[in-house]
């Protein structure tokens, strides 16, 4: 029988939803797999805390740990729940978490941080010179506090070795589908996916940044430029400076970029910005003007025109359509 050991860490002010959703999805996977194949797997989910006392989570929810951090052993997947608002005070008070993470990383345990819990990995020094993401609300503060981390602002999921970061609770569902396929099989993953909002799911591959992967065109100078644009999408595009950054003349840079990417640097940047704006329109309550500003546009009217040009509908209509998918009930047939 295949043993699958998953641990969820408990600490104050964490979002209970970022614990319950992964646990429910993994439990559903194990139940479905056992219904098909019999007792071929055994999933164990352990809640670990600094002590054996119940931990108060965001919303006043108390959760009782099964064991202390130090008692964890033989873990296949370690999940760090998201923190509400500023995570730094909680990170500073939980040095034992950093110690556990360093040990788990050495043991090749797969570690997944949700939202601002990526600060635990960064504080432990595990993300130095590695790609990572965090919740959009905390990205600027994260970049300032951890300059050695290669923050991927345009990606909701990153992977570097056995370290995974997801930007939000919604995104952890996409990553769980990836782990379910890894622990069980594709059929089990698809079954679980069908029960957890399939209309809004995106695959792990679709929106993840995996360290070591490169774009399919293979032009390293263009890849370097694309990566710079992904990481600095809020900044004004200066083709002269970007070309120099890649060691090319402006003319050669523009020619090679179009040949490799099939679009100009400006068109690529616009696509990146609109992709990020889609997530903000779906998952946040920012106004259209605030979304425009968040992705690098001072003029919300220009942003709206560009959004409609690329997606066929203005931002306001897009927001209504995706939120309709999230919250509307199916029509009743007589």
TrEMBL record:
UniProt keyword list: DNA-binding, Transcription, Transcription regulation
Signal peptide limits: none
Keyword DNA-binding: yes
PROSITE patterns noted in UniProt: HTH_ARAC_FAMILY_1, HTH_ARAC_FAMILY_2
Pfam families named among the record's database cross-references: DJ-1_PfpI, HTH_18
Domain called HTH araC/xylS-type: residue spans: 223-321
Domain of life: Bacteria
GO molecular function: DNA-binding transcription factor activity; sequence-specific DNA binding
Protein's name in the database: AraC family transcriptional regulator with amidase-like domain
Organism of origin: Sinobacterium caligoides
Lineage: Bacteria, Pseudomonadati, Pseudomonadota, Gammaproteobacteria, Cellvibrionales
